[in-house]
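TEACHING EXERCISE
Course module: macromolecular assemblies
Task: Read the component lines below, then compare them to the predicted structure of the full complex.
Student: A.B.
Group: 4
Components provided:
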Amino acid sequence: ETGVTQSPTHLIKTRGQQVTLRCSSQSGHNTVSWYQQALGQGPQFIFQYYREEENGRGNFPPRFSGLQFPNYSSELNVNALELDDSALYLCASSLVGVQDSPLHFGNGTRLTVT
Amino acid sequence: AQSVAQPEDQVNVAEGNPLTVKCTYSVSGNPYLFWYVQYPNRGLQFLLKYITGDNLVKGSYGFEAEFNKSQTSFHLKKPSALVSDSALYFCAVRVNRDDKIIFGKGTRLHILP
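Instructor-supplied answer key:
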């Protein structure tokens, strides 16, 4: 059983640029969620994907977008980067239809916007 | 709207002593409750969950948590703390089966040798 893997581990971007973060779900999981964790804060829910469609979104602007692929891997795209986007971005997979399915997290991508 | 509160930013406990990390929740339905732990520069690791049944649930690494519906609390406990338990702990709640999971702001646990 392979766990959740994220790439890259670290990334530095300039304000106004665009970034794509990638996630490979744990085998057997069909749902992926993305979270933003600012320094000293708890993870904030960005959105969730199931069957390649967004099926839940937190309080994030449209410049945060995502994709889920048939193999359940996922991307998080952020356009027009702002300094406040600097954070640890966490991907988590789970199994919809199993009511007590916990999230399984990757180690995250640390994004720094300068 | 559902929410989770962790009232303590930091908890200090001497090694070998019992520990408690507090969590309260606010939801409009029956909660699914979780505890996660985060080590430096790592993602979150699942510790335990409460869905239904016994109010005391046991999880990984000797941790347990007590669900109290009347107090809307789900405190994390361990009878005897280890230095290696030092980490950041997050309480989380989900209302519906397919709903998003909402996290508290976290409590940093320091176990003193």
